[in-house]
Fold each of these.
Amino acid sequence: MAEAGNNTLRVRLVTPDSILVDGTADSVEIPTRTGFIDVLAGHAPLLDELGSGNVVLHGGSNAGQVYFVSQGFVEVLPERVTILAEIAMTPDKIDTVLAYQELDRGHEMWKDAGDDGAKYDEANILINEAQAELDAAGAKH
């Protein structure tokens, strides 16, 4: 495979089980814990915690590919993006029935949290991940 050029990024999306992407893109949309970032060639170095949502690749050898990701880290260098995700899949592989169940469970946990801030945090993470999965799959919630 050719090396990334001046306006192209080398992109790798890796899970504990496989390498889902190892190619190039002109830009990459990535969900982080604090919001989405759009990375272009020449981006300043960055290390961030991965959020839940879609990674979208534009241009290059992987143009148009979309992957739902959750839990992990993203490293951005001027010519390379590496996404290490605990969970990554194409949106058509999302189990929406399970996502709805997780959303309901998160809401129940939130209602039962009482004065325990850690339980609220855990419930919010579960709710946000389930909502991101449903959004990625194009499901209503």
Amino acid sequence: MILYCDGASRGNPGPSALGYVLQEDDGTILLEEGRVLPVGTNNQAEYQALVAGLEAARKNGVQELLVRADSELMIRQVIGRYRVKNAGLLPYFQRVQDLVKEFPRIRFEHVPRSMNADADRLANEALDRRGPDT
């Protein structure tokens, strides 16, 4: 299975949302979601998208997972190449680390934004539905 995830924030911090797509290797979509989040930063939204996608994969019994995201910072933090220095990201990072332990095989890959278009679209559609005053 492949998990594509993306977060978006307008204002950074500002209104934010997440999007993720969980799909089979052949491209068949198992599930997808775009969800409004509380006001936050883009990096917080990226992590929340990853957490939501990992939780969905776990609930659906996924054993082998390839995670693809266009947030180089998040991917490098998750694989241990960068330290998490921002205290606001630490709870999300720790949740990801707990979830990762529940998958027998999991890999993380940074991809260009163009390869993450569906997750990006879902996050932005959720922000659009939110409206300016909500």
